[in-house]
Design a protein that fits this description.
It is built from 13 helices and six strands. It is of the alpha+beta class. The protein folds into two domains: about 1-100, no CATH class; about 130-305, no CATH class.
C-alpha cells in the first residue's frame, strides 16, 4: 500500500528534522490513526483501547501496529484525542483526503503533527478554555463551528484592507520600504480588531495562531527537507519535490492574499492569513519561535518583541 510508504517517510522526516523546525517538537506525540476503506490502523500510540487487535511490529514505523474495523469517515484529516484521550492524527488515504500528491500528503501529516505539539503544551487546554468562547460545548467542535461574522460587510472590508497591508509588507521584505510597510501593517491590526466583538477577536486570533502557523510550518518543513533530506536514511523522496512544494505553498499565499475573503472561504481564510503572518514574523522578529508558546493565541504580541526588522 502506497500510504504505508508515505507514512513511513513522514515519520522519518519528523524523527530526523522536526527539532530543526521547532525546538522540542520531538517531545510531542506522533500517534496516527490511518483510515482505510475497511480498517483503521493505529501507529505509535502508547495506550490503545481494547477494541484494537495487534497486527505486529513494523520496522518502517518503529512501532507496533494495531487495527480495528473502520468506524470513522475515510476522508478525515484532523488531530484530536481520538483514541483513549490521547492526541492522535486521524487521516484517510491520500486519494480520500483530496490532498494533491504524495509529497503534499506527507507534509500535511506533519502539519497535523504540529497540532500535536500545540496540544501537548501543559496549559494548552486550560488556555483555550480560559478564552470562554466555547459556549458550553465540551466536544471541541466549537473550534470549527463558532459563529464568526464571516458575512459582515464591515468585518470583510477591514479584513481586505488588513490583507492588503500584509501583502505590501511581505513583498517589501527585500526593499528599503520594508520597515515602513511593516509598521503600517501592525497599525492596521488595531483597526481590524475594532470591527470585532471581543469574543470574535479571540476566535480569530486563536485560529490564526493555531491553523495559520500550522500551514506556515508546512513551508518550513518542506524547506528543511529540501535542504537536509539527503542526509536521512533510508533515502526519502526527492528533496527537489519538497523544494517545489515549499515554493508552491509560498506562492499560493502571496497569490491568495489580495482576494482572501471571509465570506467565501470562511475559516479556511485563517490558514492563509496566519501563514503569511508567520512569514512576516520571520523577518520582523527572527526569534519568535521561542516566544510562540508563551504568547498563546495572539501573534500580534510577537511583532513588538523582535526589536524591529533584521
Amino acid at each position: 500500500m502506497e500510504a504505508h510508504r508515505y507514512l513511513a517517510e513522514a515519520f522519518r522526516i519528523g524523527d530526523a528534522l522536526q527539532d530543526s523546525v521547532w525546538a522540542g517538537w520531538s517531545r510531542a506525540p506522533f500517534a496516527v490513526l490511518l483510515i482505510t476503506d475497511e480498517y483503521e490502523f493505529l501507529i505509535r500510540h502508547p495506550r490503545a483501547t481494547n477494541n484494537f487487535d495487534t497486527l505486529g511490529y513494523d520496522p518502517a514505523f518503529h512501532s507496533l501496529v494495531l487495527y480495528r474495523k473502520r468506524i470513522l469517515q475515510t476522508n478525515l484529516l484532523a488531530t484530536f484525542p481520538a483514541v483513549n484521550g490521547y492526541s492522535t492524527i486521524v487521516v484517510g488515504l491520500p486519494e480520500a483526503t483530496n490532498v494533491v500528491g504524495p509529497t503534499h500528503w506527507i507534509v500535511t501529516l506533519l502539519h497535523e503533527h504540529f497540532h500535536q505539539l500545540q496540544q501537548s503544551q501543559p496549559d494548552y487546554y486550560a488556555a483555550t478554555e480560559s478564552l470562554a468562547i466555547s459556549r458550553g460545548d465540551q466536544s471541541g467542535m466549537w473550534m470549527l463551528n463558532y459563529p464568526f461574522p464571516y458575512d459582515a460587510a464591515d468585518v470583510n472590508g477591514r479584513f481586505t484592507s488588513l490583507c492588503s497591508k500584509l501583502l505590501d509588507a511581505l513583498t517589501a521584505v527585500d526593499s528599503g520600504d520594508f520597515d515602513v510597510k511593516a509598521r503600517e501593517y501592525v497599525r492596521s491590526q488595531s483597526e481590524f480588531r475594532s470591527t470585532l466583538r471581543p469574543d470574535d477577536y479571540k476566535y480569530f486570533s486563536l485560529q490564526v495562531w493555531q491553523e495559520g502557523i500550522a500551514r506556515y510550518t508546512e513551508i518550513r518543513v518542506s524547506q528543511c527537507v529540501a535542504r537536509y533530506g539527503s542526509r536521512i536514511r533510508p533515502p526519502i523522496g526527492s528533496p527537489a519535490s519538497y523544494r517545489a512544494l515549499s515554493d508552491s505553498l509560498q506562492s499560493a499565499i502571496i497569490r491568495q492574499l489580495p482576494s482572501l475573503s471571509l465570506t467565501s472561504m470562511k475559516r479556511s481564510a485563517f490558514y492563509v492569513f496566519g501563514a503569511a503572518e508567520g512569514l512576516l514574523l520571520d523577518r520582523m522578529n527572527p526569534g519568535w519561535h521561542d516566544q510562540y508558546f508563551q504568547q498563546k493565541f495572539y501573534l500580534e504580541k510577537l511583532y513588538g518583541q523582535g526589536g524591529g526588522s533584521r
